[in-house]
Amino acid sequence: MRALVRAGDKSTLTLDPNHPEPTSSEHPDCYLIRPRAAAICRGELQWPEPLTPNIPVPGLDFVGEIISTPTATETHLFEPGDQVFALTTHTWKGNAREITVSHERELARKPKNLSWEEAASVPMSALSAYQGLFVHGGLVPPGQGHNGAKRVLVTAASGGVGIWGIQLAHQAAVTELVGTCGTTNVEFVKSLGAGVVLDYRNTNIVDWVEKDWATRAFDVVLDCAGGQTLSDAWKCVRENGKVISVAEPPDGKRPLDGTREGVEGIWFIVKPNGKQLEDITKLIEQGKCRAVVDSVFDLEEFKAAFARSEGGHTRGKVVFRVS
């Protein structure tokens, strides 16, 4: 089978036309799946975890059709031919290959109203936002209760995770939702549900908050940018609020002064979770959330795909057509 692999020092990408196929005997507790599309993430070629396999394969997001069910169990949630999508574990091979494997706990049914490419763009980004806001941020997920008077900031709101941070926080009916992005994406982020969108090129978030601290300070920040943006976020949070980052550990960016008492910094690595992905599928099928694909490439175009992803100005995810 064809597979995109990291060869040599594991930093060199090649398209292998004869990569070994995974088998049920090797993975008795997994489904064998034929990916139709797989998404990549900015920076993933620098992550240490995907280097665990002897021949790593990128692309931890996928959507596809089940070939066979696990042989180690007699009952299964999914059957051959079912269309599913998932974020798979960081320590396995990724899914930019013509046959892949996945545990049942990672899988969810593909949203019926999305294309293959759109569905592939969802899992990692949406789960990162979901877990950041609702697992670590203490907010109540959509349809499961009320969030009271909560103000939320999402930075880099037009990027892969930010898009989902805005949509999920909007569906959770927080009191006010603010996003930051570049000039060309302001109207786009508003269309996702943000009540206020700040152009980071023209507005300093700290100055904006301090002009009216009582009404503008945040209870929860979901940072998707890191760097100076993350450092500034600390100064924008109310007492006992939370700064949650998917970009880098927030404690290392905590300023020496200007941070209110009890503000907590939270760093986490997204975990595969099929049940949470099913919640996201429902929101997509209800028309409450939408997938955003920046660009689509064939596997043969892997150099251009990764150049696009690493450029830092994508709107949504970069996706491979696999089969």
Give structural attributes.
323 residues; alpha/beta; Quinone Oxidoreductase, Chain A, domain 1; Rossmann fold; 7-stranded mixed sheet; 6-stranded parallel sheet; 15 strands; 24% helix; ER; NAD(P)-binding protein; oxidoreductase activity; NAD(P)-bd_dom_sf
| Annotation, overall tally of beta strands | 15
Class based on secondary structure composition and strand pairing: alpha/beta
Q: Any idea of the CATH class of the largest domain? A: Alpha Beta
Number of domains: 2
Report the CATH superfamily of the largest domain.
Medium-chain alcohol dehydrogenases, catalytic domain
- Helix share, percent: 10-25%
Domain Enoyl reductase (ER): 8-320
Biased composition (Polar residues): 11-23
Pfam family, one: ADH_zinc_N_2
Protein name: NAD(P)-binding protein
Entry summary:
It comes from Periconia macrospinosa. With 323 residues, the protein is of the alpha/beta class.
How would you describe this structure to a colleague?
- By secondary structure, this protein is α/β, with parallel strands linked by helices.
- The chain has 2 domains: 3-122 and 291-321, Quinone Oxidoreductase, Chain A, domain 1, CATH 3.90.180; 125-267, 3-Layer(aba) Sandwich (Rossmann fold).
- Helices cover 24% and strands 26% of the residues.
- It is built from 9 helices and 15 strands.
- It has helices at residues 116-120, 123-136, 160-171, 186-192, 205-210, 213-216, 227-234, 274-285, 302-310; strands spanning 3-7, 12-16, 31-40, 61-68, 83-87, 100-102, 107-109, 151-154, 176-181, 196-199, 218-223, 237-245, 264-267, 293-298, 317-321.
- Strands 3, 4, 5, 6, 7, 14 and 15 form a 7-stranded mixed β-sheet that branches. Strands 10-9-8-11-12-13 form a 6-stranded parallel β-sheet, sandwiched between helices.
- α4 (186-192) links the parallel β9 and β10.
- α2 crosses α3 (160-171).
- The mean pLDDT is 94.
